[in-house]
Amino acid sequence: MRKSELIKKFQGQEATIGIVGLGYVGLPLALRFSEVGYPVLGFDIHAGKVARLNAGETLIEHIPSSAIASANARGFSATTDFSRIGEADALILCVPTPLTKHREPDLSFVLDTLASLLPYLRPGQVVSLESTTYPGTTDEELGPRIEKQGLVLGQDIFLVYSPEREDPGNPNFTTNTIPKIVGGRTPACLEVGLALYGQVIDQLVPVSSTRAAELTKLLENIHRAVNIGLVNEMKIVADKLDIDIHEVIAAAATKPFGFTAYQPGPGLGGHCIPIDPFYLTWKAREYGVHTRFIELAGEVNSAMPDYVMMKLAGALNDRCKSIKGSKVLVLGIAYKKNVDDMRESPSVILMEKLRDAGAEVSYSDPHVPVFPETREHHFDLSSVTLTADNVADFDCILLATDHDRFDYGVIAKAALVIDSRGRIPAAANVVKA
């Protein structure tokens, strides 16, 4: 009875949706449910973030404040009070899943969040995990903890894994247009999960289990990590052969089948691609499997900042300068173009390497006006405005993230440009890295 009643509430848009974690994944999802007409309650542990959302302010650059204000007008609100968990019919967990210092899965955010929910769970709810994780997490970690509350999965409460597929800053896809994978702990859980997402997502892709859904997400990200590792290695080979790898990629991309173009860069960034493959390598070791291919791609991508540093040092040396004492301007500190997301950004790693080598480091990023406070990276800097005069003040310009808002005509006039993204035409003052 609970299953049919809950499905009916979702189909009638009468269910209250609880989104736990209001970041790059949770906030767009909350706005989508609100847009369709569901009552939405957002949960987050950061009081400042909650206050800004309730005041109609955005937290993410590509989401306008008007979208938050509109959702507020429709009844969306955010809270730090987890005792209100019982008000929600659906609880969607959108929290980070980073790695430990030993590159092993860190489920502390997921498990701590679940611990905050457990005292307030009730029959007739669905819990959906969207955080990327290793196969078995939903079944082995979440399921037993929920059952200890006296709730029977598939009867009293429903457990789902449905991985996020957000691509921040990509105007070609929105939350509702990206097909969504859904796996349930039981067949009844899957039915409820499909009803939960069915009104807000254009296409659902049901799979046989939460484990299959978890592995699907990892495969997607590993596919990208491995192919980016391949093209990064090809970039090094092409450089030795005095061939422009970007010309080669563009030519290869004209093949209408069997080839997908990936672009090289100074490393991997974002919360997914540099991290998620190691969730599978860790789990695979439990079964005696050594994932050499995945780990090799990780090694190649992790080494790219050192390759860029080598090219930069060599270029300065050719001009009778050293890194120490040189004024270096890093262009773009977000992990990819046209966003303000700095998670795992290779640009920041490059800034630290330059600082450690004695350079006077500055940065310019129209999407990040002030270097934010983070747990691991510390720079008391603000973004430098790019002008012809400013560019002339630096010994070296390092293009790390190729935002469209940069004036590449001005950048190309610098004394020395280290181009890790292939955006600047070849010239005597431009070194490809």
UniProtKB/TrEMBL annotation:
Q: Where is the UDP-glucose/GDP-mannose dehydrogenase C-terminal domain?
A: 329-426
One Gene Ontology BP term is: polysaccharide biosynthetic process
Q: What are the entry keywords? A: NAD, Oxidoreductase
Q: Recall the GO molecular function terms of this protein's record.
A: NAD binding; oxidoreductase activity, acting on the CH-CH group of donors, NAD or NADP as acceptor; oxidoreductase activity, acting on the CH-OH group of donors, NAD or NADP as acceptor
The superkingdom listed in its UniProt entry is Bacteria
**Family matches, as Gene3D superfamilies:** NAD(P)-binding Rossmann-like Domain
Q: Name one Pfam family in it.
A: UDPG_MGDP_dh
Q: Which PANTHER family match?
A: UDP-N-ACETYL-D-MANNOSAMINE DEHYDROGENASE
Q: Which family does it belong to?
A: Belongs to the UDP-glucose/GDP-mannose dehydrogenase family.
What is the name of the protein in this document?
UDP-N-acetyl-D-glucosamine dehydrogenase
The species this protein was found in: Sphingomonas hengshuiensis
Organism classification, top ranks?
A: Bacteria, Pseudomonadati, Pseudomonadota, Alphaproteobacteria, Sphingomonadales
